[in-house]
């Protein structure tokens, strides 16, 4: 049974938290931060069931694989490799999806757990905290080295909880075109798509996000550009768009066919140094003349 007691009482008496009425429980739990709530959930399954009374559905979750962390509001659940745990002060161990691991507290706002495999640890912590809090997942940023089975299990998990996500970064060298296309069929991305995957051939994907950044956009054609009319930001790197493609696109933008577009950056080796946008003079880099760029 989980109990609370006062550190000022020389003979503290157990405070039976679960015996409180629902309204009283809400009043107590609302003062606990996400890390404290997760700690409380470790006591028992029954204790886990009352955590949503703290209003955890209003929290937001951001999952950043490159930075090795899950962020719930401003509270960080970081994952480190076991080889580094001697650099931290230990506070005991905790259980994530049945796996017991060592943990350390960096601050009131950050808890670190230590694992033999970073990506496995991130998945376990992510599944645990989102199941306990039952909060929406706002963003998922994958990494180049994440394994396909872990990436797919995370996407499957998110898509069973919600139909859309605000931000998605797709980046994993082990993925296939089929894996990526399944991602787009499983989740709608509403705000920000960052796409680092290299398609083996041109594909048709939805471009309904406000911001699009494609690092390897050699497969993008004018047909794809026509589908980006809702975008506010378009950033295409390593494209193969021709000067005729760009003239058509810029003229369409000028005619109001892209009413939301505020920022456009397209890199293409197919553009000559004489190409200009709307007849404006080319931007010249006087500091590094070897670099030619137009925005």
TrEMBL record:
<dbReference type="Pfam" id="PF07735">
    <property type="entry name" value="FBA_2"/>
</dbReference>
<protein>
    <recommendedName>
        <fullName>F-box domain-containing protein</fullName>
    </recommendedName>
</protein>
<feature type="domain" description="F-box">
    <location>
        <begin position="14"/>
        <end position="51"/>
    </location>
</feature>
<dbReference type="InterPro" id="IPR012885">
    <property type="entry name" value="F-box_Sdz-33"/>
</dbReference>
<dbReference type="InterPro" id="IPR001810">
    <property type="entry name" value="F-box_dom"/>
</dbReference>
């Amino acid at each position: 049974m989980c109990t609370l007691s006062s550190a000022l009482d020389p003979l503290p008496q157990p405070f039976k938290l679960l015996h409180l009425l629902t309204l009283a429980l809400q009043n107590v739990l609302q003062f606990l931060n996400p890390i404290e709530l997760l700690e409380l959930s470790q006591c028992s399954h029954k204790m886990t069931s009352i955590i949503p009374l703290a209003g955890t559905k209003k929290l937001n979750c951001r999952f950043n694989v490159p930075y090795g962390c899950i962020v719930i509001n401003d509270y960080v659940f970081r994952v480190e490799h076991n080889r580094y745990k001697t650099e931290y002060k230990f506070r005991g161990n905790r259980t994530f999806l049945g796996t017991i691991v060592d943990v350390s507290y960096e601050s009131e706002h950050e808890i670190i757990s230590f694992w033999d495999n970073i990506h496995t640890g991130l998945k376990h912590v992510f599944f645990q905290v989102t199941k306990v809090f039952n909060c929406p997942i706002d963003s998922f940023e994958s990494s180049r080295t994440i394994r396909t089975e872990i990436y797919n299990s995370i996407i499957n998990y998110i898509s069973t909880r919600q139909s859309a996500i605000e931000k998605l970064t797709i980046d994993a060298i082990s993925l296939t075109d089929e894996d990526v296309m399944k991602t787009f069929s499983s989740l709608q991305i509403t705000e920000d798509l960052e796409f680092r995957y290299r398609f083996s051939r041109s594909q048709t994907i939805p471009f309904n996000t406000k911001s699009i950044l494609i690092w390897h956009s050699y497969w993008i054609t004018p047909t794809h550009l026509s589908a980006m009319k809702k975008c506010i930001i378009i950033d295409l790197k390593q494209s193969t768009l021709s000067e005729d493609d760009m003239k058509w696109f810029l003229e369409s933008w000028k005619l109001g066919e892209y009413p939301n577009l505020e920022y456009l950056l397209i890199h293409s080796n197919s553009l000559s140094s004489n190409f200009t946008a709307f007849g404006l003079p080319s931007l010249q880099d006087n500091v590094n003349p070897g670099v030619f760029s137009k925005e």
